[in-house]
Design a protein that fits this description.
- The chain is of the alpha+beta class and 183 residues long.
- The protein folds into 2 domains: 30 residues; 133 residues, Rieske Iron-sulfur Protein (3-layer Sandwich), CATH 2.102.10.
- 26% of the residues lie in helices and 23% in strands.
- The chain is built from 4 helices and 9 strands, in the order H-H-E-E-E-H-H-E-E-E-E-E-E.
- The strands form 3 sheets. The protein has a 3-stranded antiparallel sheet with strand order 1-9-8, with no helix packed on it.
- The longest helix is centred in the N-terminal third of the chain and has 28 residues.
């Protein structure tokens, strides 16, 4: 007499074990494919750093000196203006300007001696001179673009030449008396 096998019991069978194992390996395999794919979509560290705000200590910048730096791939001029340069910028009748802005609109209250502007001529994107010693500052004690003859004053406002707009002011804020965060 042959013994009948009971297939209605609750005991796991070898087939159940193989199905669970195959499912687990399949899930791990899908995860191994999806994780690199999703992480590839995220920006790399260099891209994140290029757009991150930067902190700048203004204390080493001597009066009358300007420095150049890059933020988000764009040139920035930071200038510690002299009293003469500030007085000249304040004395300008804004009605005579092509792109009328007061000096106060281009600087931060209480920190008027520091001017922060993008360093690209608004005509064709050339780099104006006037930030380094010995460079011509143009007719208005600011910047001069030798490519096409645009002259900017000590507030970065267009005064002469083909450029249509003032040198733009990037987003920045003072975090201390001599420290700023650009971005």
């Amino acid at each position: 007499m042959a013994h009948a096998t009971d297939t209605t019991g609750t005991e796991p069978t070898r087939r159940d074990f193989l199905m669970l194992t195959t499912g687990a390996f399949g899930a791990v395999g899908v995860g191994a494919l999806v994780v690199p794919l999703v992480s590839q979509l995220a920006p790399d560290a260099q891209v994140v750093a290029a757009g991150a705000p930067i902190d700048l200590d203004l204390a080493p910048i001597a009066e009358g000196q300007a420095i150049k730096l890059f933020w988000r791939g764009k040139l920035i001029f930071v200038r510690n203006r002299t009293k003469k340069e500030i007085d000249e910028a304040l004395a300008v009748d804004i009605a005579t300007l092509r792109d009328p802005q007061t000096d106060q609109q281009r600087t931060k209250a209480g920190h008027e001696k520091y001017l922060v502007v993008y360093g690209s001529c608004t005509h064709l994107g050339c780099v104006p001179l006037g930030s380094s010693p010995g460079e011509p500052k143009g007719e208005f004690d600011g910047w001069f673009c030798p490519c096409h003859g645009s002259h900017y004053d000590s507030s970065g406002r267009i005064r002469k030449g083909p450029a249509p707009l003032n040198l733009p002011v990037p987003p920045y804020a003072f975090t201390a008396d001599t420290k700023i965060k650009i971005g």
